[in-house]
Amino acid sequence: MLGLSFGGSFFGNFVTFLTRKGVKQMSKHVVVKVSGEAMGSGVRPLDRSKIGSLVLQISRLCNVERGMRIAVVIGGGNFIRGREAKDIGISQEVADIAGMMGSLANAKVLADSLKEQGREALVFSRFEATSALVLNYQSLLDLWVTQSPGYSIAILGGGTGVGGVSTDTAAAQLAVDIDADLLIKATNVRGVFSSDPKKPQVTTDRSMPEFFPSLSHAEMIERGLGVMDLGAVELCLRRAIDIRVCDQGYDVNALALAWHGEIGTIIHTDPVGELRVHTCV
Fold first, then answer.
1. HEC states along 36-92?
2. CA nearest 168: which of 85, 252, 245?
3. This prediction's pTM
């Protein structure tokens, strides 16, 4: 794995190192998974207004609680999606690599856009890249347990660095590695439904997608609900990390509202009585 490594003296001058072993910081740790489409789509893969909205959402999430630390995991679907390989006429391996490179590009653009608004963010990756581009993943884990003023945002690009593995899984693994308080999955629907609410539905009450305001990890896996990679859900189940699924296009306060539990679906470790459902209208 390539990346910028810190020597002892440099690292010591940069921040005060605290051991991870047995230490739980007083600050709140949240992983935010956003799709590449949050940056743009179609003929405009990098859209200024969309990027501006995402920057504002992240900034407002930073402000909801003192000591908030945010790790953003961003996809590359605004450039290419792995499942498009056959349509484009390229191998799956090349499509996966292109997707990881697109994710890295998004991470760099997002970090620069945050900097323009006075928010410093560091970019990391597990994907093999030159040290001039990003810091390596281990550096992220090391820096996460330090008290580093001005660096409360980390951005992970390139997914897991392995083709065929979703960025949902990358986000879940990161949430486990930093002992996150919450994983927010920001997507293009308002939460978890019994079926895709974006697809045309037969016009009967029985076929209408049902919205779940809350359910357990186990219930989501058992039902096979597809808004999130179920392997990622299982990772969070093992470490009892709650997931909040919300609509990233709700408004500029979407991430802050998700943190406070005011929008979306909460996926939790323990069932809370009978599963509540509401018909999507």
1. HHHCCECCECCCHHHHHHHHHHHHHHHCCCCCCEEEEEECCCCCCCHHHHHHHCCCH
2. 245
3. 0.83
